[in-house]
Design brief:
- By secondary structure, the chain is an alpha/beta fold.
- The chain is built from nine helices and seven strands, in the order H-H-H-E-H-E-H-E-E-H-E-H-H-H-E-E.
- The longest helix has 20 residues.
- The protein is globular, with a radius of gyration of 17 Å.
- The termini are far apart.
Length: about 230
């Protein structure tokens, strides 16, 4: 399996996720000690998808994060650039109404301007080669007044917790990698988490991309965070 690195070459990242598609949801659960499910539920509540809305779930992978939006009555597009992840998602989510899958690159989304009432990305933004450009693309496809919700790993503001979190990423995940069939995935995800900007820095990137009313909320003491924003149109 291709080893993705922090330069985040799209072909390498896509190949890595293709190779781990069948176990991706399990990998996330192991990495986060099961907290990923709690974080995704929080993201669903925060986005507040409504019947009849059009929702883009970017970097949706197998569609696990997309299903609740469709179940809430929204026409939901689960978009990802890993064909392996999409194939698994189409199989696993077969029969879910109002949910469709689409292949797409976050830097060149295959949707018209102003297509969606809300756009969201969970645990995928840090895998994109150009964060600012991806945020601008998300704004392009959002309607005026459209909502943005980012759920992503982050950094605990408490120094003691931050130290423990870094130790988990540096030493705990490599132990999991030793018994995994996809050790490179663990190493890359740990490295990309350590290199990711903190909550305030990400908020500035969102604002620089043209979004307004940017705010964030810490999850699990800041191990992850949700960023909200509005497209001013």
């Amino acid at each position: 399996m291709t080893r993705a690195s922090l330069d985040k070459k799209p072909a390498d990242v896509a190949a890595m996720f293709d190779g781990t598609a069948e176990r991706y949801d399990l990998l996330n659960t192991l990495m986060t000690g099961g907290q990923d499910r709690r974080w995704r539920r929080a993201a669903v509540r925060a986005l507040d998808a409504r019947p009849g809305e059009r929702i883009l779930d970017l970097a949706a992978g197998t569609g696990t994060s997309s299903v609740p939006f469709a179940e809430a009555g929204a026409q939901t597009v689960a978009c990802d650039f890993s064909l392996g992840m999409l194939r698994v998602g189409v199989r696993r989510q077969a029969g879910v109404p109002r949910l469709r899958f689409a292949a797409g690159d976050a830097l060149r989304l295959p949707f018209a301007d102003g297509s969606f009432d809300a756009v969201t990305i969970s645990f995928g933004l840090r895998n994109v080669a150009d964060t600012g450009r991806a945020l601008r693309e998300l704004r392009r496809v959002a309607k005026p007044g459209g909502r943005l919700l980012i759920c992503e790993v982050s950094h605990p503001p408490n120094p003691a917790l931050a130290l423990g979190h870094k130790a988990h990423l540096k030493y705990g995940l490599p132990l999991l990698a030793r018994v995994s069939s996809n050790p490179d995935s663990y190493r890359y995800l740990a490295e990309s988490t350590l290199a990711w900007p903190d909550q305030a820095a990400l908020a500035r990137l969102v604002q620089d991309a043209g979004w307004t009313k940017v705010r964030w909320r810490d999850l699990t003491f800041g191990v992850a965070a949700m960023h909200h924003a509005i497209n001013p149109g």
